[in-house]
Amino acid sequence: MSEQVRGGCLCGRVAFVIAGPFEAFHWCHCSRCRKDTGSAHASNIFSSPDSIDWLSGKDEIKRFDLPEAKRHAKAFCTHCGSPVPYIGRNGAYLIIPAGTLDGDPGIVPQDNIFWNSRASWYESGAAAEKYAEEPEDRRP
Ligand SMILES: [Zn+2]
Ligand SMILES: [Zn+2]
């Protein structure tokens, strides 16, 4: 598929469009991805390195390559801290944090990797009650 999908960071300074194809979609539960995202898992879509066009904010992006890791890296908007797409350390893929996309990438998660490292609360959260929005009586 070669549909264009727009994306960007929380503050809006960084914006981009990705032409695809979206080749893979993995949820990674490894401890590094949990730290990196502050959440239960990373949601990473893979595309080819030349599939992205930066519309704005490229100079606002900082990249971090975890020194002791072979592959783990991240990039983020220095103003709002949101993760943004980056080229993998081996140069072979564009890695897109799926939540940065505004539209439907037309691909769904294929698997959960590093499942044995998942957060102890992950499955309980996925199974917990669903509300359309934040309920008034559930504020901490
Ligand atoms: Zn931002
Ligand atoms: Zn991971």
Q: What average pLDDT do the residues reach?
A: 95
Order of helices and strands: EEEHEEEEEEEH
Overall tally of structural domains? 1
Beta-strand content bin: 25-35%
Amount of helix: under 10%
Structural class computed from helices and strand pairing: mainly beta
Overview of the structural elements:
Helix content is 9%, strand content 31%. It has 140 residues and is mainly beta. The chain has one domain: Metal Binding Protein, Guanine Nucleotide Exchange Factor, Chain A (Beta Complex). The protein binds zinc ion (2 copies). One zinc ion (ZN) is lined by residues 28, 30, 32-33, 42, 114.
Task: Provide a compact summary of the structure.
With 140 residues, this protein is mainly beta.
Describe the SSE topology.
Blueprint: E1 5-8, E2 15-18, E3 24-28, H1 31-37, E4 42-47, E5 52-56, E6 61-65, E7 73-77, E8 86-87, E9 94-97, E10 111-113, H2 122-127
Parallel strand pairs: 3-10
Antiparallel strand pairs: 1-2, 2-5, 3-4, 4-9, 6-7, 8-9
Bound molecules: zinc ion (ZN) (2 copies).
The site of one zinc ion has 6 residues, from α1.
